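Ticket 4471: requesting a sanity check on a complex prediction with iron/sulfur cluster. Repro inputs:
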Amino acid sequence: MDHSSPSDKNLSIQPDTLAMIAKARAEGLEVVWDRAAAQEPQCGFCELGLSCRICVMGPCRIDPFGDGPQRGICGADAHIMVARNLGRMVAGGAAAHSDHGRDLVETLLAVGEGKAPGFGIADTAKLDRLAAEFGVEAELPTLDKAKELALAIMEEYGIKKGYLTFTRRLPEVRLEKWRALGIEPRGVDWEVTEMMHRTHMGVDNDATNLLLQALRVALADGWGGSMIATEISDVLFGTPKPTASQVNLGVLKEDQVNIILHGHSPLVSEMVVRAAQDPKLLARAQELGAKGINVVGLCCTGNEVLMRQGIPMVGNHLVQELALVTGAVETIVVDYQCIMPSLGDLAACYHTKFYTTATKAKFPGAIHLPFSPETGEALGRELVVQAVENFALRRPERVLIPGTPVAQVSGFSVEVIEQALGGTWEPLLTAIKAGQIRGAVGVVGCNNPKVVQDYGHTTLTRKLIENDILVVDTGCAAVAHAKAGFKQAEAAELAGPGLKAVCQALGIPPVLHMGSCVDNTRIINLAAALAQALGVDLDQLPLAAAAPEWYSEKAATIATYAVASGIYTVLGVMPPVLGSSAVTDLLLNGLEAPLGATFAVEPDPTKAADLIMSHIEAKRRGLGLKAR
Ligand code: XCC
Ligand code: SF4
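Returned structure tokens:
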């Protein structure tokens, strides 16, 4: 019997999602859309950024209609309130990414000191390049070099050095623009801390000054914490190469032990992937009646192991609960970020075991087995052992796995794209100059129950590639695109004639998967490389970014560093800023003159595509290229 209501059809464009919503209904289980409905109507003050609970003289609210209070108890007006709230949001995202990066650096240090069994250096060429960038002696043996690099990168977090090394990848003109505004990032933790300080009651009470610090803390993420996470992950686990895999709930297997890896870090997940190949554990699984051990990924931990190991992707943010509703999951292992605190309740409705692995991220209903570089390898094995044993408790009558897996190719690191082009950016630049490719857009970010799941991503991207715009993607957007079939070489057929010809010549899809959320730094590195190759600043390139379904603080931070790096960025969901005309105007218009880029907000993805296309043609004109 179909328990879904007709209105459920408006929640997602994905048949596998809808099938599992129906199963959740039939089994009386609550999922994210139910809780979203229960929150209606959402607070209008908060939506506008006009509520404040920074101190306990408050909470305070400002009346957007002008009848009620126009100031908080301390005297903060609407502009101060909105700017402070936004600043804290951006700092939250930067803190999350950067703290994730720190875990990778700590592990690199442990590897260098010989204290991390099972971990090693997978990409020595990248280790060498980074060592050169950070002034580490080239002649050192590999492990010593890893240690010295880790120690050098730790300086990026502090207050001694005063600049971020990765920013030196940018054209000098970009750095000069930052210096003119006073937003060149100094240290990762420094900028986060200063944002928190400035937004304490009675510190920075100038909306513009607050927003400048928001730009600076975002840059400390993009060219600091996130980039560290990406680069060190490549050193430890390998720089991604094109890898064939599959996507959607159908990658779960009825006759195998299913393990889901969820969160953002590759540290535990890589160890689980490795342990799952152990013949002894496979034999034990077979003893219990399973045909094998099926490791799949979800959200960005999923992207990490998909990009490097070809591990199938079960789904994006709004699928996390539904994956458990299949009843086919022995174990879900999480690290941190974007993990719904509801997972414990859902796991308890099935035989599923829910494991947390980060001391900084505990959840109700979970078993906590903390990771450390010293014990990570053993932890990976223990998690697989537990999953295999749990297979015996699965209740086949409750299992329903919807969907047929869709093929996808993933793993387009900057290094691989450059290689595919023959080791130089020239062929890509030639195709752009000739107008075969009009430009490139990063379509990135989350799912949000305010948007029909995956409709924003896929509608925008389909229209962009039809119009000869190359799309690169990360995060949950990448999962949406893969499910739509955009990541197969055959998807070249969906592209306009120019892009299609380029894709067919190179044997690549028109939508290139560049990784997880922290891997948005691959996109800005690509942009910087193209700008350097052309001898221009990033804002002169025919590039844009979009986050059609974003929800998280991290996404706000990514969008902010994209704009501050010179990339026009279109959001599909309104950030909580409309309560201040000054803040809104600064974001939509005021950054154009000093930084060459702005934010735009457009919930309709078809119209967002139009905005992006006219932006790209304007940038082409600016470069003296033929424009439409
Ligand atoms: Fe989270 Fe990275 Fe957003 Fe997905 S896309 S919902 S942040 S998992 Ni980055
Ligand atoms: Fe109210 Fe000001 Fe305190 Fe905010 S900081 S809660 S506006 S008194």
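Notes from triage: The chain has a mean pLDDT of 97. Leaving this open until the requester confirms.
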